[in-house]
Write a structure and sequence with these properties.
This protein is an all-alpha fold. It is built from 7 helices and no strands. Helix 1 crosses helix 2 and helix 5 packs antiparallel against helix 7. The longest helix is centred in the first third of the chain and has 19 residues.
Length: 119
Amino acid sequence: EEEVIEKWGDEYVNQSRRNWKSYSKSKKQQILAEADDNYAELTKHLHEAPSNEVVQELMARWHQNLRYFYEPSHDVLLGLGTLYTDDPRFRAFFEKFHADLPEFLKLAIEHYVGGLKST
């Protein structure tokens, strides 16, 4: 949380805390399961380009899942991509799905955000 506050301010942390506390135990489990399922599905597409339509649909699901916590700006989305590759804790989490997932996510996020900015 301290790192998020340092990089993007406390708005995201506060919003995330409020939202998370408002969910039932079953809703929290559903949110986390959706995220895990999406990451597992992304590993099936590592051989494709990050710009692939299916990959980008999965990135839209990823973005939607983040909204359970907070509404991320484009800069925050891009920052998450960097965090997923550069922060050892995040990298280890995503490598549990597949060793190549952190880099793939970063590229897929960059493409996804580029599409958001052009609309």
